[in-house]
Amino acid sequence: MLNKKSHFSPIVFALILILGIYLGKSLNFNTFQQNEFNKFNLVLSQLEEAYVDSIDREELIEKAVTNLLEELDPHSYYIKAKDLSAVNEPMEGSFDGIGVEFNLLDDTILVVAPISGGPSHSVGILSGDKILSVNGDTIAGTGLENEDVFKLLRGKRGTKVNVGILRKGQEELLDFEITRDKIPIYSVDVSYMITEEMGYIKINRFAANTYEEFIEAAQKLLDKGMQELVLDLRNNPGGYLGAAINISNEFLEDDLLIVYTQDRSGSKEEYFSNRKGLLINTPVTVIIDEGSASASEIVAGALQDNDKGTIVGRRSFGKGLVQEQFEHPDGSAYRITTQRYYTPTGRCIQRPYAKGQDENYASDLLQRINTGELLSRDSIEFNDSLKFVTPQGKIVYGGGGIMPDIFIPLDTNSYHSSISEAIRKDLIRQFAFNYTNQHREELESQNLFNFIALFEINTNDYNQ
After folding, report:
1. Each residue of 187-243: pLDDT tens digit?
2. Of 108, 163, 177, 194, which sits 20 to 30 A from 245 (CA to CA)?
3. Closest by alpha carbon to 320, among 406, 241, 206?
4. Catalytic-residue membership of 323
5. The domain made up of 188-407 is a member of CATH 3.90.226.10
6. Bridge-partner residues for 231, per DSSP?
7. Which fold has domain 94-184?
8. CA 130, CA 109: separation in Å to the nearest integer?
9. DSSP characters over 29-67
């Protein structure tokens, strides 16, 4: 057999050499990654084999991931599989259950209100009803916590649950079979006319359905003659970026910058108003406080930087980081910061933080109290390097939340020792529910303004 010699041209040889170098680098990089991964697995394996006590591999992995994310920033974190549903539900705008608002009063589930059109409302559950048993098991007086109630009453859509109800005026326990269904979670707490011309809307979060709820509420107020709006974002921790952008859009002229985000490479995504909004001609006052964060600050910042409306209250939380959620096949998930967002003038309102578990960041509210910031605007120091100017010449600051145009100090009435004790012991809430149960018919016959004008606490009520 003849031996054939292979002849390579210089070009072919050069290409092979380049390819070899590239593959070598790639393999070295992959090998490095593999070694790092193997280090973690090796430690786990050796712990399982040699550690003096038995270990829970899954628990150790979860703790490792938790600690890994906590080392990045205050808003990147791990979500266990068992907690994911509860974390996602408020933002998705619904859950499966029987459809009641409840409170635990004297170790008993008290129905505050059945959700209109929901399963409980459909079978005749009423406000003031007390749920004493579930599926034949007595639950009153057993030390229930809110989590226990969720487990008992929530469940897959279409499944059934039997509840025993104690109703005022009825001696016998009433039995109801309720078929669980999809229950909406509303993010617009309340909307009404304060005066004949001034409307009020309170938003508790920016969830999947918030924009639609807001538009419906705003339109109803406009139909009632609203000429100006108070938008209350106090203690609103934020939510979806898209919901904040859509709501801001309703107040602005066409083609105005609402917000932009920027990732680590410097790549920007800009979001502009794209039409004349529903409330373009409606003066707006936005109320914020130290609990207003993220999406709330996007709305407040967009309106402030575009000289639309007035921001009142106290300096907001200062969260200018955007998270993205990634879900794992085992049902767990993690949220990591992928971008920073900036207001139209270029402000980053994220307050400073140190990587890892930053105690100063976590205790920010306490620091604000100690420095007097919640009581006086003069207690707040601004860095001139973080000064920005709006199109109409108003000076605004970045670096730590949205500072309102008009400062409203914290109401310190609740600091009185007797009031603080009543709040701490939950006496005020308990009194409110008991009073409502005892005077339900009388209260239902009054409107809000009559109640505010006529309601008084007498000596007997106070002594309760």
Report:
1. 999 999 999 999 999 999 999 999 999 999 999 999 999 999 999 999 999 999 999
2. 194
3. 241
4. yes
5. yes
6. 201, 286
7. Pdz3 Domain (2.30.42)
8. 6
9. HHHHHHHHHHHHHHHHHHHHHH-SS---HHHHHHHHHHH
Which candidate in 191, 273, 323, 339 is catalytic?
323
Residue ranges of the domains in the chain?
29-70, 94-184, 188-407, 413-463
pLDDT at 463: 67
- Is 229 within 8 Å of 198 (Cβ atoms)? yes
Each residue's pLDDT tens digit, 246-270: 999 999 999 999 999 999 999 999 9
Give the total residue count for the chain: 464
Distances (CA, A) of 315 to 82, 94, 347, 366, 411: 35, 31, 14, 14, 15
Q: Which residues of the chain have pLDDT under 50?
A: 1-8, 10, 12-18, 21, 23, 25, 27, 29, 32
Give yes or no: 319 in active site: yes
Q: Is 439 left (phi over 0), alpha (psi -120 to 50) or beta?
A: alpha
168 is an active site residue: no
Catalytic residue among 319, 332, 339, 350: 319
Q: Which of 242, 431, 244, 262 is CA-nearest to residue 350?
A: 262
